[in-house]
Each structure stands twice: as structure tokens, then as C-alpha cells.
Amino acid sequence: MEELFSDEYFMRKALDEAYAAFEKDEVPIGAIIVSKNRIIAKGHNLTETLTDVTAHAEMQAITSAANYLGGKYLPECTLYVTLEPCVMCAGALYWSQIGKVVIGAKDEKRGFQNAGIKLHPKTEVVFGVLEKECSEVVKGFFKSKRK
Fold first, then answer.
1. Does 8 qualify as catalytic in the annotation?
2. Which of 28, 46, 58, 93 could make an S-S bridge to 22, C-beta 3.0–4.6 Å?
3. Are 69 and 52 in contact (CB under 8 A)?
4. How far is CA 23 from CA 12, 29, 63, 141, in A?
5. DSSP three-state, residue 34
């Protein structure tokens, strides 16, 4: 049985957001932000729905968390995201001073690490939580587009 409030538990919640994006025909990336073992923000890609290239899952979640907390900094928070953030989202995470980022699957083409970008020096980063599941949802989406 999966431990309550583990990284795997919260990544499954982020995967729920990715599936919600998939249902909307959006690239299926999901994100949640947790503070004190409580989900305070959720987000999934809405770039097509909003016709906004900045409407990534992470951006949706960061904005929602900041509004919930009433401040722009998130040092006591953890972001769970199904795919490695892009350069834009990494920049937003840097400026939010988020305490921890837990990433499902790496994005070898567009991920922030491949571009040489670093998050805030105090931000802890964990890769590979439910990597297979996180990778499969994205691969399945693009496979369905090639039919």
C-alpha cells in the first residue's frame, strides 16, 4: 500500500491533472502544489483552451498557490509535476523560491536542465517519481496524434 502523503501519493494527484488535460486535448502535463501535506493548488496545461502559450500546468499551479497563500513566495511548498518543467516554468519556479520540486519524467528536448537552467539555490529537486506512468501519458497523447 502506498504511504499517505508520500511523493508517490502526491505525484498520483498530479497525474490526475495530466489526465484532465488529456481529456481536453491538451498536452497531458499535471501539477499540484502542497503545503504542510495539503494540496493548495492544482494545474494542468491549458495552452489550447486559453490560446495562451504561457498556460502551462506549473504556471497555473504557481499562480493558484500564490493567490491561496496571499504572497508570491513559496518556500514552504512542494511542486509535483509529471514532466520536467520548461525554461519558462523553471524561471517562474526560481522567482517563487519554491522549497521543493518533484518531477515525474525528464524532458530531454525541452526540459530546463538540458538548457543549463538552475532553480533557486534553496530549492530541492527530485527526479523520477512515478517516471514510467508520467512518461506513458505524454507518449500516449502524442502517439494518438500521429494516427
1. no
2. 28
3. no
4. 17, 11, 22, 10
5. strand
